[in-house]
C-alpha cells in the first residue's frame, strides 16, 4: 500500500473541512486553534491507524492504531456534517436570492460552523460507547415451510464481523462468548470477518472461541478479511481450536429428542419416540475468495452436493449477502450472512445497498430467507451510530 497518495487525499479532505468551518469560528479563537490541531493530527494519523503494525512494533502499533482510528471516526462525522452544512447554506442562499425574505445568512454561517464540531464530537462519543459495549441479543423467528416437528424451535446463535485486531482483543471476544453460551443454542455460526491480522499476532486473542458451547458445535465460514490476513493459516488455527470450518461443503445435523422407554403406572413399557430430523448445514468461502485463491471460489451448489434429498431444511452460511442469488438457485431455505455491518454508522448505511442486496435483517429472495447480521464487532473506527452491533438468536418455526 502506497502511503503518500493516501496522505495526499486525506490532506485535501481535511483542508476542505478547515476551509469551510474554521472561518466561522472567529468568535472562538481557542476553538479555531483546537480544531486546526485536530485536523492536522487527523491528516497524519488516520492513515497510520490502518497501517500501525507495518510502521512500528507492539505495543506502540496498537496505540497508534487506536489514536488514528478514533480520529478517523471523528473526521468522518466532521466531513459529512460539513457537506450537509454546505448544502443547507446553498439552499438558504438560493432562497434569499429568489425571494424577498432577507435571510440572516451571516448568522447562519457562524452558528452552523459552531454546531459542526460539537455535533461531530457528540456523535463520535456516542458511537464509541455503542461500539465498545457487549452486543445485545437480537431474536429472530424464521418460518420454514414443511418444517419437521423435530426441528421446531431449532436455534442458531450467529456472530459475525468481530474483527479481532488492533482495538478488539481477547477480553472483548470473551464477553461475546459468555453471552452466546448463555443462549444455550443448538448450534453457533460465525459468518466471517473474524480477524484483522495474522495468526502469529492474534491467535491468543481468538482463543476464547474454543469455549463456545452448543448442542451441535460451532461452524465458521471465511470472510474477505480472512483473506487479507492469511486465510489458510486461520482455517488451520480455527480447526485446531475445535471449530468446524466449512469450505464449499456441508455437514448433516440430526436433531430431535432421542427415543426412550418409560413405564406406565401399571408397569408396562411405553415408547416415547421423537423422530430425529436431518438438517443440512453448508458453508461457502467468501464471495471474493477466488481473487486470492482460485481453489477457494465460492460455490453454494458445490456445497450442497451429496446432501440427503430427504432433508427438509437446508441452511447456508455465506459471509456476503450477495451469495443469495446462487444460494436460491441451489435450493437453500435460509442463508445467514454478515459483511455489511448494517452500515456501522450514519450515513454509510445509506450506501451499502449499492454493493449488497440486503443491508441488515430478514429478507426473502424467491424461496430463500436471508438474514444479514449488523455484525458483532466493528471495522476501523470504534464507532457505531444508527447500526448497533448484535448477537443473533435465530429460531426455526413452522411456516
From TrEMBL:
Residue stretches spanning the membrane: 33-52, 64-95, 115-131
Pfam families (alphabetical): Metallophos (PF00149)
InterPro entries (alphabetical): Calcineurin-like_PHP, Metallo-depent_PP-like, Metallophosphoesterase_sf
Gene3D superfamilies, A to Z: 3.60.21.10
Keyword Hydrolase on entry: yes
Keywords in alphabetical order: Hydrolase, Membrane, Metal-binding, Transmembrane, Transmembrane helix
Calcineurin-like phosphoesterase domain location: 155-342
CDD domains noted in UniProt: MPP_YkuE_C
Keyword S-adenosyl-L-methionine assigned: no
Name of the protein this chain belongs to: Metallophosphoesterase
Protein's organism: Polaromonas aquatica
